[in-house]
Amino acid sequence: AAKSDADSSYRFYDPKIQDSRAERRAIEGALKTALDNREFELFYQPILDLATNRMWGCEALVRWKHATKGMIPPLQFIPTAEESGLIAPIGDWILEEACVTAMTWDRPLKVAVNLSPVQFKRRDVFASVTKALNLSGLPAHRLVLEITESVKLNDEATAALRRLKTLGVGISLDDFGTGYASMSYLRSFPFDKIKIDQSFVRGMMDSAGSRAIIKATIGLANDLKMSTTAEGVETHEQLNALRLAGASQAQGYLIAKPMPREALAAFMAEVEGLQKPARAIA
Ligand code: C2E
Ligand code: MG
Ligand code: MG
Ligand code: MG
């Protein structure tokens, strides 16, 4: 059967499909090499706490520093890493690197790490998180795991989340409002935080609809004893409106772009020196 399948795929040879398959295999090989050669790097994006006007912590965002292609953003390689299963070792490296880096900060800020649904579905995600915490010595309450609605929240998944929570780590629901099951998600698991997707923030000054959704999400989160982070904040107008609406935290280019760990140290020192979170916020 395998042979006739091969024959028929030969007969209906589509150069486009063939190319993309070959391309994917090439990326897979390159990802393996990248892991061995330590070509991945985490950038850190500061998140502002709106109640205190101080830094809450940072979200770790992976980049691939390719030898010839330069900096490759996550959306261009995470899907291939997920399909090939390489997301497991890459994800373990990300967890460890983020925890180790957070331990070097001169104040106990939180570090948020994105978990791929593939990584999350593996039974050893608990072991991966425990290992990263033990290896780094980071107190569990400083680690926050971000998952999206692409994780199917069945009984097994909610059990895994509950088990992770017993460690003391925080769990955030990322990109809220863009998936298929936002409301049932909130009923399935007591998330610590809802991250309001940047698409709503982007539209909020022009669209009453976006503002209504943001307002309702914050109200819902408050009633459910969850905090909220607004993503993609780029203007003072957005920040002020989000403050008034009662968002707990803000993240976006207005506060700071994602930056390498060395730059973050300088950013934090500067912020502390000003006794204000950031010059952009004053
Ligand atoms: P996300 O977790 O929702 O991360 C936020 C994304 O929004 C980041 O893109 C960030 O650079 C971008 N962003 C932040 N502020 C602004 C803003 O003011 N304006 C605009 N236009 N964009 C802003 P990035 O780093 O390209 O990451 C994209 C996505 O890739 C992430 O979305 C996340 O889903 C995934 N990702 C990133 N790092 C990791 C990782 O370490 N592991 C996994 N599994 N996924 C990751
Ligand atoms: Mg995220
Ligand atoms: Mg997001
Ligand atoms: Mg996103």
TrEMBL record:
Coiled coil: none
Leader sequence residues: none
Subcellular location: Cell membrane
Designated name of the protein: Diguanylate cyclase (GGDEF)-like protein
Domain EAL residue range list: 24-272
Protein species of origin: Microvirga lupini
Top-rank taxon: Bacteria
